[in-house]
Design a protein that fits this description.
Largest sheet: 7 strands, mixed
CATH architecture: 3-Layer(aba) Sandwich
Helix content: 40-55%
Distance between the termini: 36 Å
Structural class: alpha/beta
Shape: globular
Strand content: 15-25%
Order of helices and strands: HHEHEHEEHEHHHEHHE
CATH topology: Rossmann fold
Number of helices: 10
CATH superfamily: Vaccinia Virus protein VP39
Strand order of the largest sheet: 3-2-1-4-5-7-6
C-alpha cells in the first residue's frame, strides 16, 4: 500500500471519532475562527474559495456561513461523508469532492482563495502540493495556510503524548495506538511529519512565485486552543501555530 492510500485509510477510520470532544464550546470556537478568516480575507465581497484537506468541513462550512462559494476536497471519503452530513445539518451549500491535495482536479486560476489547515504534515510532496494550490489561485488571489509543530520527537513530548493516549483510552473509548500503527511505517516519507516552521512555508511560497508573503504567529489562537481544548489535547500538544499568506 502506498503512502497516500495509507493516509487516506487512516483518516477514513479516524473520521468515526474526529468531531468528538474537539472544543468545550463549539459555538465559541466557530466564532473565534470566523474572526480569523474575516481578517485574513480582508474583503466583504463573496469569493470562490477552495478548502484543501477539508476533513469534516470545519473551515469550509465557516466560509459558507460567511456567504462565500466554497469547495472542499479531501483524500478521505469517510471524512467527506461527515462533511456533507454537517453541511446538511446546517443547511449550507458546499461542494465537497474526493481528491488529492497534490493533484487538484481544477483548471488554472479557478479560485480567489485556497485555504488549508493542519495539512502539510500528511503530504509526501509538500512542494508539489503548494505549487498545485498556487496554480488554481487566480491572479491577485491568496493562498492561506495554517499549520504548526504537531509530532515533536523530543522525549518529554513523547512522554506527554503517551500520558494523553491513556486519558483518551479511558475517557473517549478510542484506541490511541491507531495513529502510530498507521503512521509508523510511512512517517519517514512525510517531510513535515514532525512539524513545519514559518520559514519552511515562506520558502515553499517563494519557490512557487507567490508575493507579499506574510506570517501571523496566531498567539491569540494558541491561547484559545489551550483554554478550550480537552485535557488530552493540552497534554499532547504544544504546537507553535502560525498562519502564512501569499498572493499570486
Amino acid at each position: 500500500m502506498d503512502v497516500k492510500s495509507k493516509v487516506g485509510l487512516y483518516w477514513d477510520r479516524r473520521s468515526k471519532t474526529y468531531d468528538r470532544n474537539v472544543y468545550k464550546s463549539q459555538n465559541a470556537a466557530e466564532d473565534f475562527w470566523k474572526s480569523i478568516l474575516k481578517t485574513e480575507i480582508g474583503t466583504e465581497q463573496n469569493l470562490n474559495i477552495l478548502d484543501v484537506g477539508t476533513g469534516t468541513g470545519f473551515l469550509a462550512l465557516l466560509f459558507a456561513e460567511l456567504g462565500h462559494k466554497v469547495t472542499g476536497i479531501d483524500i478521505s471519503k469517510s471524512m467527506l461523508e461527515k462533511s456533507r452530513f454537517n453541511a446538511y445539518k446546517q443547511k449550507l451549500a458546499v461542494n465537497f469532492m474526493h481528491g488529492d491535495a497534490e493533484n487538484l482536479p481544477f483548471d488554472d486560476d479557478s479560485f480567489d482563495i485556497v485555504m488549508n489547515r493542519y495539512l502539510l504534515w500528511t503530504l509526501p510532496d509538500p512542494k508539489t502540493a503548494v505549487n498545485e494550490w498556487s496554480r488554481v489561485v487566480k491572479s491577485g488571489g491568496k493562498l492561506i495556510l495554517i499549520d504548526g509543530r504537531w509530532h515533536d520527537p523530543a522525549i518529554y513530548m513523547r512522554l506527554r503524548r503517551f500520558i494523553a493516549s491513556i486519558i483518551v483510552l479511558i475517557t473517549e473509548n478510542r484506541n490511541p495506538r491507531m495513529f502510530s500503527s498507521y503512521y509508523a511505517t510511512i512517517k519517514a516519507q512525510l517531510p513535515f511529519f514532525n512539524g513545519i516552521t514559518p520559514n519552511d512555508v515562506v520558502d515553499l511560497f517563494t519557490e512557487v512565485g507567490l508575493k507579499k508573503i506574510s506570517v501571523n504567529n496566531l498567539e491569540k489562537l494558541r491561547a484559545f486552543e489551550t483554554k478550550n481544548r480537552p485535557l488530552p489535547y493540552k497534554i499532547a500538544n504544544k504546537p507553535y501555530l502560525f498562519l502564512a499568506l501569499g498572493e499570486k
